[in-house]
């Protein structure tokens, strides 16, 4: 029996406290091989996302993994970005102001890196997209065959059948670049999107934080340091004693798709107006008389339910090592 081939993963990320958690879980997941991190704005600006990605790899002692810096602007070249420093701290990592990393990003842009790796390992790469989808859309612009060459794109994005978290219409990652999101959702790639309707069911509680605090492991201790701001935000915004594990849940869906159930249909994204960033899902149950913006577009998988206790068990097992 040969060794089971590990899934090759690129994490597109805007670290971010829960991004940090997802990255550490990924590095401790024997099922996958993280072949690169690409960075994007969202929780912080892109420059800081790159710095944080390099820093997290240093903490995890995995500086062998390349970091490719992503776009500083949206697909339509907008520079006015929505940055969520009030959720993750101004440094993106719980206001700990760690010393700068010694490592540097590679010379290649995130989009070029994504295209390059999809050519090198056609059909074998899973992109786990934890921020706005600009880099992925730019990879598609750079190489129109990218959707066929990439194995799967697992997206943290959208709010299906529930309110958004930026406003009632929109979830933060999609709102960050609605044009890019619409390009990606209609690209024909094998896509699974995990919305906040699902990630809001996975709660990392005060009790879980205590367990982490009791663990002597370097990663566990590091996470305890950075989680404070994230806990306070959730307490104020949602009146809950815990934090939602958006990014770790999405990563684990890429590792083990059976943790979630899915429905399939066409997703379009509203690009302007009061509902900018809205993900509108056509469940394909009706044949409409009119040709619409959903007609004949490729279907994507949208997560509907999650086995939250199992996700939490995997999270804790991997972080408490």
What would you say this structure looks like, in words?
It is an enzyme of class 3 (hydrolase). This is uridine nucleosidase. Keywords: Cytoplasm, Glycosidase, Hydrolase. InterPro entries: Inosine/uridine_hydrolase_dom, IUNH, Ribo_hydro-like. Residues 9-312 form the Inosine/uridine-preferring nucleoside hydrolase domain. The chain has 321 residues and is an alpha/beta fold. The protein has one domain (7-319): Inosine-uridine Nucleoside N-ribohydrolase, Chain A (Alpha-Beta Complex), CATH 3.90.245. 38% of the residues lie in helices and 18% in strands. It is built from 13 helices and 11 strands. The strands form 2 sheets. A 9-stranded mixed beta sheet has the order 3-2-1-4-5-6-11-9-10, with helices on both faces. A two-stranded antiparallel ribbon has the order 7-8. Helix 1 links the parallel strand 1 and strand 2 (32-39). Helix 1 (17-27) packs antiparallel against helix 11, helix 4 packs across helix 5 (134-142) and helix 5 (134-142) crosses helix 8. The longest helix has 21 residues, at 218-238. It is globular, with a radius of gyration of 18 Å. 50% of the residues are buried. The mean pLDDT is 96.
């Amino acid at each position: 029996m040969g060794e089971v081939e590990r899934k090759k993963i690129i994490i597109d990320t805007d670290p971010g406290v829960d991004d940090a958690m997802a990255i550490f879980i990924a590095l401790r997941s024997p099922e996958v091989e993280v072949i690169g991190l690409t960075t994007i704005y969202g929780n912080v600006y892109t420059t800081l996302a790159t710095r944080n990605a390099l820093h997290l790899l240093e903490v995890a002692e995995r500086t062998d993994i390349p970091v490719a810096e992503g776009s500083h602007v949206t697909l339509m070249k907008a520079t006015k970005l929505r940055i969520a420093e009030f959720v993750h701290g101004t440094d993106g990592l719980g206001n700990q102001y760690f010393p700068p990393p010694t490592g540097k990003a590679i010379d290649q842009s995130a989009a070029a890196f994504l295209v390059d790796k999809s050519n090198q390992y056609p059909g074998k790469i899973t992109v786990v997209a934890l921020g706005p989808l600009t880099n992925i859309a730019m990879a598609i612009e750079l190489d129109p065959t990218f959707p066929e060459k990439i194995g799967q794109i697992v997206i943290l994005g959208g709010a299906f059948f529930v309110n958004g978290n930026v406003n009632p219409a929109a979830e933060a990652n999609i709102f960050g670049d609605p044009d890019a999101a619409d390009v990606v959702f209609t690209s024909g790639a094998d896509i699974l999107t995990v919305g906040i309707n699902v990630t809001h069911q996975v709660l990392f509680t005060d009790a879980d934080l205590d367990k982490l605090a009791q663990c002597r492991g370097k990663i566990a201790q590091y996470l305890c340091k950075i989680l404070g701001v994230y806990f306070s935000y959730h307490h104020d915004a949602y009146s809950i004693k815990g934090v939602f594990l958006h990014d770790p849940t999405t990563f684990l869906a890429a590792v083990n798709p059976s943790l979630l159930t899915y429905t399939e249909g066409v997703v379009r994204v509203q690009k302007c107006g009061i509902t900018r960033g809205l993900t509108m899902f056509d469940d394909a149950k009706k044949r409409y008389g009119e040709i619409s913006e959903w007609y004949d577009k490729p279907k994507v998988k949208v997560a509907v339910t999650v086995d939250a206790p199992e996700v939490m068990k995997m999270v804790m097992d991997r972080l408490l090592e």
